[in-house]
Amino acid sequence: MKRIFFVLLALVIVACGVLYYSSHNQRARLDVAAVEGTNPKITDPQTGLFPLFHIAKPVGWKAGETPTAAAGLKVQPFATGLDHPRWLLPLANGDVLVAETNAPPKPGEKGIRSWIEHTLMGRAGAGSASPNRITLLRDADGDGIAETRTVLISGLTSPFGMQIVGPDLYIADADALLKVPFTVGQTKIDAKPVKVLDLPGGPINHHWTKNVTLSPDGTKLYISIGSNSNVAENHSMKLEQGRASIWEYDLKTGEHRIYAYGIRNPVGMAWEPETKTLWTVVNERDALGSDIVPDYLAEVQFGGFYGWPWYYWGGIEDSRPKDPDDNNLQDTVIKPDYALGPHTASLGLSFAEGAKLGGAFTNGAFIGQHGSWNRKPFSGYKVIFVPFVKGHPKGLPIDVLTGFLDKDEHARGRPVGVVIDRTGGLLVADDVGNAVWRVSAK
After folding, report:
1. Inter-residue contact 368 to 268 (CB < 8 Å)
2. CATH (domain of 117)
3. How many structural domains compose the chain?
4. Structural contact between residues 434 and 128, judged by C-beta atoms closer than 8 angstroms
5. Fewer CB within a 10 Å sphere, N or C end of the chain?
6. Which of 220-234, 321-335, 404-418 is least confident?
7. What is the dihedral of CA 401, 30, 280, 54, to 10 degrees?
8. What domain range includes position 230?
9. DSSP annotation string for 323-356
10. How far apart are CA 214 and CA 199, in angstroms?
11. Beta strands of 264-337 (E only): which ranges?
C-alpha cells in the first residue's frame, strides 16, 4: 500500500509540474490592447501538453454592488434574481424578453479532456441545468427598473436568439428554429411552438448557442451556428456539417442556405445602420497561448470564407485540424475587420442606433465580452464600444461597463447580450450575476 501511495503521489507531483510549466509557457506576453483594433499584433503560438485553464470563480454581486459605468454614464439593475439570463429582445411597447438558458446535455462528449473541460466550465458558472424559458420583463412606470416579470414560455431546449416577425415569435433553440403566435403586450404564451427548421445539434453540440436576426426588409432570418469543436482536431469535418457558419432562411419559401462559413463561433449579429450590412462578433480558437487568436468583429460577406478551422486572421495556417484543406482555400480567407482581444469571449452585439448615451457612444457598436477561461491574465469581463466612421470600425475600443471581476479576480458577473431599449438605454444580460443591467446617460 505504501508503494502504491508513493507512486500516486509521484504522479500527482509530476502532473502538477507539467500543468504549471504548461500554464507558465502559455502566459500572456502582450497587453490585450496590442491585440485589438484594425491592425492587431499576431504572434507565434505558445502551446503546452495541456491547454491553459484559468477560471474566474463565480461569486455574484453583493447587495448594493453594481458594475462600474464609464464617465458620464450611470448603471442600475433593470432586473435581478434571474436564472442564467443570456440574451435579450426589446419589444415595441417597452417590454423586454430575456432568454434564461444554459447548455443542453451533451452525452456525446467523452474522454478525460471533455470531463476536465466540463468540470472547469462548471466552476466558471456554466454547469447548471438550463432553465429553458423566456421571461418577459416590464417597466411600466419608465423608471429603468422592471417591476413585473412573467414566464412567457417554458419547456424549450436551451433557447437563445429571438425575433418578432409579424404575428409570430421566432426562437432559436439549441437544435431547431421554432415559431409561436405572439402579440406584443401578451405576457404568457399558451400555444405550442412549431418547428420550422432543424439546426445542427446532436450529442455533442459544442457551441450550442444559436442566434437569429431579421433582415432590414423583413423577408429573411439569419441564424448564427458555432462549430462542434475547437479546431476539428479530434474528429472528422463530417461532424461539422452546416456548422461554423451563418445561415440565411427565406421566410416566404422556407428554404435556407449557408450565407457565410469558416466562422468558428459567431454569436451576436446586427445590421450596421449606415451601410445596412450584416455584422457579427466571433469567438476564435483556443489553446494557442494567451496572446492569440483574437476574437473579432466582421462584416458578413455573402459566400465569404473566414478561415476556420485551417486558418485564422486572414490566412495564417493552423496545423491542428486533422482533415486536410483539399481545396487550397488559404487565398480566399477573408480577414476580419476588427480584433477584439484574445479569448475575450465577445458575444453580445448591438449598434448604437437609438441609443441616448451621448458623448463618444453615438456611432459604433456595443459588445458584451463574457470573459476568458483560456488566458492568463484574464481578458474580457466587460462591455466595450467600438467607434465606427462611415460604416466601418476605427480607433481603439472604449470601456462602457467594467467591474465584473472583483479585487480577488472572482467573477461577480459575466456580460452576454447587449441591446438598446425603447428609451435609449443600454441593457446588458449578466448570466453569472443573474441580472440585467441598464446603462444610461447621467
Report:
1. yes
2. 2.120.10.30
3. 1
4. no
5. N
6. 321-335
7. -70
8. 2-441
9. S--TT-GGGGBPPPSEEEEET--EEEEEE-TT--
10. 17
11. 266-271, 278-282, 294-299, 304-305, 311-312, 316-317
